Amino acid sequence: MTGRAVRAERGDATRELILVTAERLFAEHGVFAVSNRQVSEAAGQGNNAAVGYHFGTKTDLVRAIARRRSEPIERLRLGMVNEVAGSTDVRDWVACLVRPVTEHLAALGSPTWYARFGAQVMTDPALREIMIQEALGASSLLHVIEELDRCLPHLPGEVRAERGDMARQLMVHMCAERERALALGAATPRSSWRGAATGLIDALVGLWLAPVSHP
């Protein structure tokens, strides 16, 4: 292996370590409360400017973490979308929203930090657009949303938008809450991520199919 290849390999390893460390610190303390310097120190980097050198600004770092997770989730969702192609069952498309995330978290083992990281970012007005852009940049997710809309032609546009917001909140924060409990060794309502996904899908199907009341 050449010297250039060795340096490139070390650089890749350093970037990966920084991403893992930043995801954990942001999940546990919030993005605003953690500086790039603290991330560099926690990642064991002698150079306190390592984050800036490898990623740029904190916003760039947040985007890199989101992208690192969105790519494997997209692969899982594409497989699920292919399996239910042509379905008119709301549950099938809701499952395509939920299970790619929970299966990715399950595959990571325990503890994980991505769900709590996502919850922190989604509540930060300056950063939430990053998560939305990364998610909606996935072609499979846009397709799932289109198919879900086709299954619910009776819903008025404003109700559809409202329930979409509700569904997003449930997915983000229920996954984060389960992840937090697992990290603390606390009891969880379901014994596995698969079971948690089933419960969340049940609730979301009920949400989407609930009757519409008029004021």
Any overview of this molecule?
- With 215 residues, the chain is mostly helical.
- Helix content is 74%, strand content 0%.
- The protein contains ten helices and no strands.
- It has helices at 3-29, 36-42, 50-54, 58-83, 90-108, 114-122, 128-136, 139-151, 157-184, 193-209.
- α4 packs across α8 (139-151) and α6 (114-122) crosses α9 (157-184).
- The longest helix has 28 residues, at 157-184.
- It is elongated and about 60 Å long.
- The mean pLDDT is 92.
Task: Give me a quick take on this structure.
The chain has helices at 3-29, 36-42, 50-54, 58-83, 90-108, 114-122, 128-136, 139-151, 157-184, 193-209. With 215 residues, it is mainly α. The longest helix is centred in the last third of the chain and has 28 residues, at 157-184.
How are the elements arranged and paired?
Layout: H1 3-29, H2 36-42, H3 50-54, H4 58-83, H5 90-108, H6 114-122, H7 128-136, H8 139-151, H9 157-184, H10 193-209
